[in-house]
Structure formats: structure tokens, C-alpha cells
Write a structure and sequence with these properties.
Blueprint: E1 4-6, H1 9-12, E2 16-17, E3 31-33, H2 39-42, E4 48-52, E5 59-64, H3 86-89, E6 93-98, E7 101-107, E8 113-114, E9 119-120, H4 130-145, H5 152-160
Antiparallel strand pairs: 1-7, 2-8, 2-9, 3-5, 4-5, 6-7
Length: 161
């Protein structure tokens, strides 16, 4: 069960991320949202398509990882792709809203979260580690990419440039 919590040095000081288990969280994803900044790395190996969201009616750009529900043809005990999409490797982190401001959230129940092994999020003084700084930069890249062009044709124009 997912448990998203705003990341804080007080609550998460001893949390670590087992980077060997991050990609496994995408093992059962057949579609993963992707951003234009990734296209040059993605199109070498993944089919990239536009699909319409059933909830919002908006078009989304996704990499196709499988054809059946919960099928990921790029997962076989480890990630088999040359490039792993950002929305897979950013796990178990998400961007949330708190008082109209973006905050970094963590899924405390994710399999990659550990108290024993992995990359520390904070040092002993409660300062962010380089690992967390890199995660925040990745989340910022994803968030900036969500700013949609005015039209679908503009999106296609950006994609081919």
C-alpha cells in the first residue's frame, strides 16, 4: 500500500534508498509517461505514442513497455533497456502540493525505501545529500516538462525539433 508523505529531515533522517530496487518498481508498468527532454534517448528503443487520458481527456506522451495489463517487456529480473525513463527512476519520489507550494513526497512503503542500506537522503546534521539533490533536480525536470504547449500540433513541432 502506498503511503505518500512530504519529505522532511526530521521524519526521514534515517531513510535510505536502495537504488538496486528502484527499477523493479516499474516491473509491472506497460505504459510510462515520458517528457520531450527524454525523446532522443527513448526513441532508440521504446515505442513512444500519444494516448488520451480517460479521466481528463488530455493527450499524454508515453513509452510503451508492454501490451497486456501489467506486462513490461523491458523487465526480466532487472531493467533490460539501454535507457530507463525518468518516471521509473524517480521512484519512490513524487511532487505533491502543500499550501499551494510544490513539495517533494516519498512513498514510505516502497520496496526501495530502507533504514539499513542504500543512498542516504540526509546526513547526520539533517542536510540534504547529493543523492537527494539529484532526485530533486530530476523531479524539477519532470515538473517543468508538464507545462503543456498550447496545442497538440505545438507538441508535435517541439518533438521533431
Amino acid at each position: 500500500m502506498t503511503k505518500l508523505t512530504a519529505l522532511s529531515p526530521e521524519r526521514h533522517k534515517h531513510f535510505k534508498i536502495d537504488t538496486n530496487r528502484i527499477e523493479a518498481q516499474g516491473a509491472h508498468e506497460r505504459l510510462v509517461p515520458v517528457v520531450i527532454a527524454e525523446f532522443s534517448k527513448l526513441v532508440v528503443q521504446y515505442p513512444v505514442v500519444f494516448t488520451k487520458s480517460e479521466e481528463t481527456g488530455e493527450f499524454l506522451c508515453v513509452a510503451v513497455l508492454g501490451f497486456e495489463p501489467k506486462e513490461n517487456l523491458f523487465w526480466q529480473e532487472s531493467w533490460q533497456g539501454i535507457y530507463t525513463p525518468l518516471n521509473v527512476i524517480r521512484q519512490p519520489f513524487f511532487v505533491g502540493k502543500e499550501k499551494d507550494e510544490n513539495v517533494v513526497c516519498i512513498d514510505e512503503h516502497a520496496k526501495s525505501v530502507s533504514l539499513e542500506r542504500g543512498e542516504a537522503l540526509f546526513d547526520e546534521d539533517g542536510r540534504e545529500t547529493a543523492f537527494l539533490t539529484d532526485i530533486k533536480a530530476m523531479l524539477a525536470q519532470l515538473l517543468n516538462a508538464e507545462r503543456k504547449p498550447k496545442s497538440l500540433s505545438a507538441l508535435f513541432w517541439i518533438a521533431i525539433c
